[in-house]
Each structure stands twice: as C-alpha cells, then as structure tokens.
Protein: ASCH domain-containing protein
Amino acid sequence: MEQKVLNVDRYVPSDYLKRKLLSGEIETLTLHERVADPGDTFEVQGATFEITRVEVRDAADLDVPDEDGNAVVHFFERVA
Structure:
C-alpha cells in the first residue's frame, strides 16, 4: 500500500488533541472510520507522526458508541 501524508485537521481535528499529541500524552486515536494505514504520516506544528498500527475493535470494549459495534483504533509514534 502506498504511504500517504494525512490531513491532520481531518485526523486530529481539535487543538486540544494536537497539544496532547505534542506532549506525548496520547498515542492512539479512536475513530469510526479507517482514515489511515500503517506507514502513513501526519504533522503537527513541525513534528511528524507515523501510523504504526490500525485495529478494528469492539466498540463496547472501548466505551465508544457506534452503529455497527466497531471502532477503529489508530496507533502512532512521533518520528521527527
């Protein structure tokens, strides 16, 4: 699969989450759709993050409401 650079505002829409990313307080995001693949990157204020893993999980385990009972969890790490 071809790696892509993600639109950070679609992937991480709030300034609050961007601050948490930059501080290292969060390393996962739970969304209702798959918007990234391993190897994709996104940038926040000059810091580059790479998607390392994408999993579909039962939303009940994550306490995330969803119509089909699933949530997509994107794992990432800061790379630059």
Observations:
- Residues 15-23 form the longest helix (9 residues).
- The helical segments are 8-11, 15-23, 59-62.
